[in-house]
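Notebook entry, structure prediction.
Reason for the run: the old model in the group folder had no record of what sequence produced it. Starting over properly, with the input documented here first.
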Amino acid sequence: MMFSISCTILASCQYVTIAQDYGEWERVDVLHNRAMRYCLGVNKFAPVHALYGEMGWVMPRYGRWISMVRLWNRMISMNNDRLTKRLFLWDKPKCFNNWSSWIYEICTEFGLESNFQHELPIDISIFDSLMISRTETTWKDTIQFKPKLRTYVKYKINNYKTEDYIRTPLGRMHRPIFA
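New structure, fully documented this time:
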């Protein structure tokens, strides 16, 4: 069930956001949190950071960045005579409040400016591991200041991964017992 939710709903949400706006997508994040709550079988008052700790998913913002980098790689490998590539090449030098500027911000944040300047593809496996480590460090830094989760922090602080009980096929009635 967890695999089907992450493949259908979340992938569709990320697909919508990669070509539009780089900013925050609050409704997509809410849907992402709702999908995690559904998988775990917990109520709407369960802390979001505990959900991320249990599921081990990449935060939606970073998932959108991964999708944007995939689109960058497709644009770079495209033939120059295609209309899409021509529009991309026309848009790239402007690099102000457009898709190219958002990619440039992502590249500078991770030290990949040379890939942007020289129009080189970005290795997805390396970028994916960067996103996972960024999610983990963001999660660890944020969870320390949540007083509601002080007991949770004692047991989970160095263990950001999908828990084993989530991977086992349990019914919706049994999963909240473990969560």
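Summary: The chain has a mean pLDDT of 81.
The old model has been moved to the deprecated folder.
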